[in-house]
Predict the structure.
Amino acid sequence: MTQPQLTDSFGRVIDYVRISMTDRCNFRCVYCMSEDMQFLPRQQVLSLEEIYILAKAFTELGIRKIRLTGGEPLVRNGALDLMSKIAQLPGLDELVLTTNGALLESQASELKQAGVKRINISIDSLNENRFKKITRTGSLQTVLRGIEKACQQGFDKIKLNAVILKGKNDDEVIDLLNYAIQQKIDISYIEEMPLGSINSHNRSNTHFSSQDVINQIRKSYDLIETLEKTAGPSRYLRIPNIDSTRIGLISPHSHNFCDTCNRIRVTAEGHLLLCLGNEHSVDLKRLIRANPGDEHLVRETITNAIQNKPYSHNFNLENDTQVVRFMNMTGG
Ligand code: SAM
Ligand code: SF4
């Protein structure tokens, strides 16, 4: 039987969805949320059953890859059970996860058993004090133990994600790369995106481009550009003779990745977002709650919404906040 496909009005096949399982988090990273972040009342967040209904509808429409993210997905009670149910959905190639790593030491082996194939782990500094400054509440040692535990479980891939901020951690590009090489895992460097306004943090002061990252790495290593693509927005570089670590660059400012975009997102509140950098959304939670059991309507609404997927976002450096949503709501 041929798989169904979701195609937008520009002919892009949409086969990847990122679902934010919660807006809550045990960290308060400076670029992601304010220290006194107000979280959504529980009733406004998708229930685990509602997330499953959506995941099922997406896979029936041809989605092949689901990333669970947040907020911090592993703080949500029942997350592991939900993951093992989603992992078994027919047509799904990969269930993957983005986490801050704080709970990985205790959950890595259950995640593997639940059927999670790959994990992205965020880490922006290898210096304990600085790690605390960036995350406000995190412990570096706990995250490092979590990464090492995850590396022992035999996941298909583990990748570190580092947001590089000028004057905060831009001198750690090489240290983070060396750590990834030592652990034999990938690393992606992310340019900060203007999502959500945070009083204590001015994004235009901290912009550090992917080209700046490359220039730093070239001081220590030769780099080979590759044409490798995953289902995500990274482009990849390699170091000659180091096969176990790829270097990804996620560059929403300097290297627009929209023309090959295959992704949509569902926020913790159940809004279907067609583009990270646009506010346009469809309220799937309201639809599900108003029409219990009507799976056909859910699929039809998603199919129609895809036709409104914009061609591109347009982040620019002059405007600090171009989207009012915070990343923890959106699902990074
Ligand atoms: N809590 C999990 C974590 O930190 O991995 C998952 C959610 S977090 C929102 C997903 C990713 O988004 C993290 O790698 C984080 O560093 C990144 N992120 C958060 N806010 C960002 C921003 N304004 N610009 C770029 N990346 C951001
Ligand atoms: Fe939490 Fe991830 Fe946002 Fe940091 S980036 S505050 S870990 S959701």
Q: What stands out?
A: The chain has a mean pLDDT of 90.
